[in-house]
Amino acid sequence: MNRQHFKSALSLVFAITTITRLVSPISAQAQTVLAPIKISENQRYFMAKGKPFFWLGDTGWLLLSKLKREQAEQYLENRHKLGFNVIQVMVVHDNKEINAYGDSALVNKKINTPHVTSGSTFGKGDEYDYWDHMDWIIKLAASKGMYMALVPVWGSVIKATKVNATDGAAYAEFLAKRFRDNSNIIWLNGGDIRGSDFTDTWEAIGNALRKNDPDHLITFHPFGRTQSSKWFHDSSWLDFNSFQSGHRTYAQDTDKKDLNYGEDNWRYVQADYAKTPVKPTLDAEPSYENIPYGLHDVKLPKWNAADLRRYAYWSVFAGAAGFTYGDNDVMQFHLPTDKSSAYGSTTYWEQGIEAPGAQQMRYLKKLIESHPYFERVPDQSLIASGQGEKYDRLLATRGKKYAYIYTYTGRVMLIDASKLDGKMIKANWVNPRTGLVTTIGVFPKGKSMKFNPPGAQKNGNDWVLLLDAI
């Protein structure tokens, strides 16, 4: 090789190395294609390629704006290993939004003018501009088999800047066209706001998303203690319902604008379940682990793992198509460099992702997936007597040959198993804290079968009674 050829070859190697560094390791995974999430044939649940898809979400709200790529990799890998398959994130949380690399989302804080650099296509330009960084994270999630539930613009931005329907639709069109080729997209219109506020704008965003991205599901993330079905159940763009049950205790839930369900998040499911046309529903934001009761008074006790398990099992057994978990430190990605934190967060997100509630959510998913999925229905008639109130409430669900009954307090259950097939019943205890299954025994099927959970009756001694017909 002569000197000129050597210099040319060296230049080519340098160019390839430079491009590789710019594109980063995710480029090798950029072609990951996940099966799109669809509504099941009975309209109650989700599926992918005709197989059950149990939505186990996490509120990683500020993922796009606060984490750099190596941090995003750490977070998503943790959630992937714990069985989470949906990450809920805000695309624009503030009209001054910038990402961890200092790039702005918008031009002059205008929602209808996204700040897009000349190299805006993934892998072909400035990889750290706001929208290219978002591309990168969406593809990273896909490579781990995870879906991204994207809130286009948080409700507070719409209220503060009075975004009208025209500008909202223009922004939604940009988002839909920019990201619709990703297989792992779900749209969460709204964002902690009542649908009665700027209704025309939310309808315009929903319609624009549907028109420009007909292949991905759309819902609406509402204000606390409200549900999307109150305003948008009949909207053509709304594929499934969401509600936000958090973050107040029974005593704190006194707002006369809302339904005052308190901590009974199963009531939102019950209300949506009765509506027509039939659509799936789920709790998209319960009370977060490690956040104060009612959010704002940091001197109050904090919600813990047991509370999150209660919200999860109550809502799913009531008929929900999944559940979204949340942790105070993680949802805001509390960093050591932050000048302050929200809602009394004192732990950084790296420690927050190890919270016990997050570890325990996988046991619910595993249980629900262990039996025939699409035939499952809520059925309180399984409880022969004493359904209970507040923390003593029992929630029951069943298929043709199985049933699950959840108790938060570990109290005695009287169960009517007459609806299940067969003459004999195999009974097991499932521990929501560990996922361990303990056999109780095999019994003749009866209309008033008594089961006494292990341990003393108290809040947080929760158990699932699993009955299998023989």
From TrEMBL:
Top-level taxon of origin: Bacteria
Residues annotated as domain Putative collagen-binding: 377-468
Entry annotated with the keyword Signal: yes
Residue intervals of the Apiosidase-like catalytic domain: 40-375
Signal peptide range: 1-30
Pfam families: Apiosidase, Collagen_bind_2
Entry protein name: Collagenase-like protein with putative collagen-binding domain
